[in-house]
Structure formats: structure tokens, C-alpha cells
Design brief:
148 residues, OB fold (Dihydrolipoamide Acetyltransferase, E2P), binds zinc ion, single chain, five-stranded mixed barrel
Amino acid sequence: MKETSKNIGIKVKSNSNSCNDPNCPFHGSLKCRGKIFTGTISSTKMQKTATVEFERQAVIPKYERYEKRRTKIKAHNPECLGAREGDIVRISECRPLSKTKNFVVIENLGREKGFKERMEALEEGKTRKKEKEEVQEEKDAGSQSKSN
Ligand SMILES: [Zn+2]
């Protein structure tokens, strides 16, 4: 058997799983360098790719206050880490793996508390908006038929 997992130069939890992904920093030949972020996975719908989201603060000089902004980053998701939607993960910059992907998941820190509720709330907000639009359309249709 091959070595279990390589030292990637960043202190992370050791993972006992193995994989055959050449773009895995532990079992493949991918090197990590550059920025490291921590965020929550919001989508794993693409193959071997995770969308990681996190909040950051931006300074508004005019008002001398801060503003919350969200960043979304696409990151390669090696199978051996088993990261799913709602997991908090650490991602490290690496060479560009595709047009939009130049980060890789290096550590799975467990589930985010209240992730399901947050996504449900988001979903509800979306459906409410749709309902409103539908109502609006119906109203428009009604007024049109009246005028005709
Ligand atoms: Zn691996």
C-alpha cells in the first residue's frame, strides 16, 4: 500500500482515508501555497467541486463603520475528506485547476450549527418572492382583462 497521507506543509487533522485523485494535496501531486480561508460549503452539486462561502468585513470610510460582505469561492473537494454541504472546511490556494477553481479543501472541521435552518430560511425567502411575483402577475392580468 502507498503512504497514507502526505505532509502538505500546513498543520491539519490527519485523515486516514485514501483516494486516487491526482489533484488531492494528500494523495496526489497538488501543492498548496498562498491564502488559507475557513468557510461553509454551500453547494457540492458539481463533480469534485465545492462552493465555499464565508463572511468578511469591509470598511466604509465615509461612515467609519464596517459592512458585512459574503465571499463565494469554488474549491476542489477530494473524496478522502468527505466534505458535504453544510460542513465547515479550511481551503488553501493552489494552482488553477479550472477556469474558476484555484482552491482546494484541506480540512473538514465538522458541521455548521444551524446550517439547515439558514438554507431553509433562504429557500423560504425565495419562494415568498416568487409568490409575490405571481400575485403581482395575477393582478396585472386582472387589470388588463378589466380594461378590455
Ligand atoms: Zn486524498
